[in-house]
Amino acid sequence: MTRIELAKRGIITDEVKEVATEEGLTPEDLSKNIAEGKAVITRNILRNIKPLGIGKGLRTKINANIGTSKDKTDIEEELEKLDIAVRYGADAVMDLSTGGPLKQMRQAIIKHSPVSVGTVPIYEVAVRAIEKYGSIVKMTVDDIFNVIEEHAQDGVDFITVHCGVTMKIVEMLKSGERVLPIVSRGGSILADWICHNGKENPLYEHFDRLIEIAKKYDLTLSLGDGLRPGCLKDATDKFQLLELITIGKLKDIAVSEGVQCLIEGPGHLPINHIETNIKLQKSICKEAPFYVLGPLVTDCAMGYDHIAAAIGGAWAGYFGADFLCYVTPSEHIRLPDKNDVKEGVIASKIAAHAADIAKGYYKAWERDNRMAQARRNFEWQEQITLSFDPEKVLSMRAERPPVEDERVCSMCGEFCAIKISRKAVEE
Amino acid sequence: MTRIELAKRGIITDEVKEVATEEGLTPEDLSKNIAEGKAVITRNILRNIKPLGIGKGLRTKINANIGTSKDKTDIEEELEKLDIAVRYGADAVMDLSTGGPLKQMRQAIIKHSPVSVGTVPIYEVAVRAIEKYGSIVKMTVDDIFNVIEEHAQDGVDFITVHCGVTMKIVEMLKSGERVLPIVSRGGSILADWICHNGKENPLYEHFDRLIEIAKKYDLTLSLGDGLRPGCLKDATDKFQLLELITIGKLKDIAVSEGVQCLIEGPGHLPINHIETNIKLQKSICKEAPFYVLGPLVTDCAMGYDHIAAAIGGAWAGYFGADFLCYVTPSEHIRLPDKNDVKEGVIASKIAAHAADIAKGYYKAWERDNRMAQARRNFEWQEQITLSFDPEKVLSMRAERPPVEDERVCSMCGEFCAIKISRKAVEE
How far apart are CA B312 and CA B268, in angstroms? Predict the structure, then answer.
């Protein structure tokens, strides 16, 4: 039986107890949320990692994308990215490789990763189709489901499937109303296939085959947003909403069949669209866990898109997004390197933490309250430990240490406001 | 006559026309906003820089703090920080120096700065008091106003004055209800003076002397928030609100006397407090321009406080804050260096731009729409030009260039979604 099937029968597993205990809600509540498709635990039955809970009542989680492209393939570097992502707090990683030996890469990442691993199988289908047939449009329906099954067999915990990129929406896109028709790689591959073959998206048409594979491995389906807006001008448009309605329906089918789902969301959104987007998703998809990419609050932050994504992600989390996909400084420019991964994870972690604070999540408050006390008491070691990147804080402080008084810092020196005001009002 | 006096008489100056034209509102509207204290133009009558408009109907502006502390004094470095701040888009800089030859530093910064310069004169009063009397609590009322007059004579465009740190609030702080009583340097200096001397804050008691100096130079008063929360736990508490009420009253007096004011605000605020804070300020201070520091949405982002501030600042701007004071990665750790200034300015600029986008400011949208078109058309030079740090984008792209097709990037390579989807739906 899958997690949903167990939960529907009121059976509370050790896994549910483990996640619930760590997150500070009751196993009964978590189990109920899983049964209703409002929370998921992403772990392939073949895997022996810490289970990851995402959704209602749970801390905001973050995902780091790693993986090669044809223009840059290096397994060792990707494994180092994995280590960095986990070290700085990624709750999950996705292997988005499209270059080099894909299966070997995936297996290495799964073997090394202590956290949930997600993939986008259509990438590998496309790579193989080019190798085998010379073109992505020649991939067959069986090619698609064979690769998905392979990923599940390899132990992948969740997969992105762009089931909502239907013939109808792709046909509508031809009107030219969008500045950027599709900015999702998987979505564009499927759109190309649909247009060329004049057939329906196999992931939509044969959704039952997806359900069958997912049930076997208790694989979580992340229903991808192939139509997510790729610029602010395209935000919250009909294409995006029609896809959301489609994947909301598929989510209901999956949950009724005992398969866990995440719903993926934008993308590029101006600040004033964020609350609406989260509430729409929560309403249309009946509180299913929402997994957002960014959202990026401007199109112009190249080199600093991790910051644009942190601005959007923190607020998306506050309004109810459950899972933030990080964005690195190299977004829109090139494949991320190790430092980009670090910067991206930390920015996303800050966003998720700020969201949890605003939602009143007690463990997040505990950390900030400890930081405030440490600041009050000039306890530098404690402050460093509580920060998101202790080594950076330590080395920054060492670069320009306080000269006269170890308690303060070189920003204010003798005019440390905490020191002066505590003396003034406490003595 | 001061700007407010002219505006009250319906006289529209060239300066008002210049600012209004650039910002895309009518000179009449801007003039009305200035007359009512809802917008300011910060420029000392002795200065010949581009006038800076802040407030209702205007683009969100950003400020970069520079300046030495006793633990690190180097005029050349501060001038380089000034250049960097201006280069990456700071609309104003504040010289917060507390170490080295303060007057020389200030004069050099004013001479070199093409943008408005602000200061916090009480710092220099404190430094001189230590030199002259051996203690900050021995500074006299005349010492305070003499330094303020000197700053105005040197050409400073706006000054922070912590007029709202009254005896009554300082007395209340002794209850120990706050984790961090005061985190404002100026506020703590005044609190110390008040407690030691048992006298009222001279900036409050002799507010008329401040008005007199400000009128002479058309100096803008930035009514400081000495009681801003220094941690999330202290956010939006009675101390902060009582101070806001006090400075709101003083603002009314100043405006009626023809003196322009900014209202300073927090500080450390959880995301769910931001909208309330902005709306409270706008209501209590009758739409006076709001100048916020951050707000930082978590206490724990040491080393990455520019990101925590961008998250808060973007949303504060969206809800109505007019002027964002940047926060650098070195906040809470040490005096910023040149790179910190750059990182801080860019993060703050992204936040201000995202706020302007969300508020519907047409020039902000124009930039993003051009970026989206450039992305659609694979115009890399245009994308680089439109970014906030063209050199960084250029060098990042060069580090991992696309191998086969110059139109794409090494993130997706041949699987560029824009390329594939445009082919699919346009051909």
Answer: 9
Q: Which of B318, B278, B275, B269 is nearest to B296 (CA)?
A: B269
Contact A54, A323 (CB under 8 A): yes
Identify whether the C-beta of residue B267 lies closer than 8 Å to the C-beta of residue B293.
yes
Whether A72 shows a pLDDT value over 80: the answer reads no
What token pair was written down for B187? 């506020």
B425 contacts on A by Cβ (under 8 Å): 170, 173-174, 181-182, 191, 195
CB contact (8 A) between residue A300 and residue B368: yes
pLDDT at residue A73, as a whole number: 82
Measured CA to CA, the distance from residue A92 to residue A64 in angstroms comes to 6
Centre a 10 Å sphere on the Cβ of residue B245 and count the other Cβ atoms it contains. Answer: 12
Nearest CB neighbour to A72, from listed B130, B303, B400: B400
Please give the residue of chain A at the shortest CA–CA distance from B425.
Answer: A174
> How many other C-beta atoms lie within 10 A of the C-beta of residue A426?
11
A281 Cβ contact partners less than 8 Å away, ≥ 6 residues apart? A244, A263, A265, A288, A290
Residue A42: strand pairing partners: A52
> For residue A3, what are the contacts with CB-CB under 8 A and spacing of at least 6?
A13, A15, A16, A34, A40, A41, A218, A260
- The CA distance from B415 to A270, in Å, is 27
Closest CB to A330 among B350, B396, B426: B396
Q: What pLDDT tens digit does each residue of chain B (427 aa) get?
A: 999 999 999 999 999 999 999 999 999 999 999 999 999 999 999 999 999 999 999 999 999 999 998 877 889 999 999 999 999 999 999 999 999 999 999 999 999 999 999 999 999 999 999 999 999 999 999 999 999 999 999 999 999 999 999 999 999 999 999 999 999 999 999 999 999 999 999 999 999 999 999 999 999 999 999 999 999 999 999 999 999 999 999 999 999 999 999 999 999 999 999 999 999 999 999 999 999 999 999 999 999 999 999 999 999 999 999 999 999 999 999 999 999 999 999 999 999 999 999 999 999 999 999 999 999 999 999 999 999 999 999 999 999 888 888 899 888 888 999 999 999 999 8
CA distance B341 to chain A (A): 13
Rounded distance, CA A390 to CA A384, Å?
5
Q: What pLDDT sits at residue A411?
A: 86
| Pairing mode, strands B290-293 and B261-265 | parallel
Nearest-CB residue to B69 (from A300, A410, A422):
A410
- Cα–Cα distance for residue pair A121/A351, rounded to 1 Å: 28
Q: Which of B180, B318, B421 to mutate to test binding with chain A, by most A CBs within 10 Å of its CB?
A: B421
Record the tokens describing residue A329, joined without a space: 């400084």
| Contact predicate B244/B284, CB 8 Å | yes
Contact B280, B265 (CB under 8 A): no
Within 10 angstroms of residue A392's Cβ, the number of other Cβ atoms is 18
What span, in angstroms and rounded, lies between the C-alpha atoms of B416 and B426? 15
Helices (H), B227-377: 238-256, 271-284, 305-319, 338-358, 362-376
A340 phi, psi to nearest 5 deg:
-60, -40
**What are the tokens at B182?**
């005061």
pLDDT at A371: 98
What residue type is assigned to position A267 of the chain?
G
pTM over 0.90: yes
**Distance of residue A331 Cα from the nearest chain B Cα, in angstroms:** 8
Q: Strand, helix or coil at A55?
A: strand
Distance, CA of A165 to CA of A226 (rounded, Å): 6
CA A269 to chain centre: 17
Q: Which of A188, A371, A420 sits opposite B417 (nearest CB)?
A: A188
Does B123 contact A415 at a Cβ distance shorter than 8 Å? yes
Q: How far apart are CA B48 and CA A201, in angstroms?
A: 64
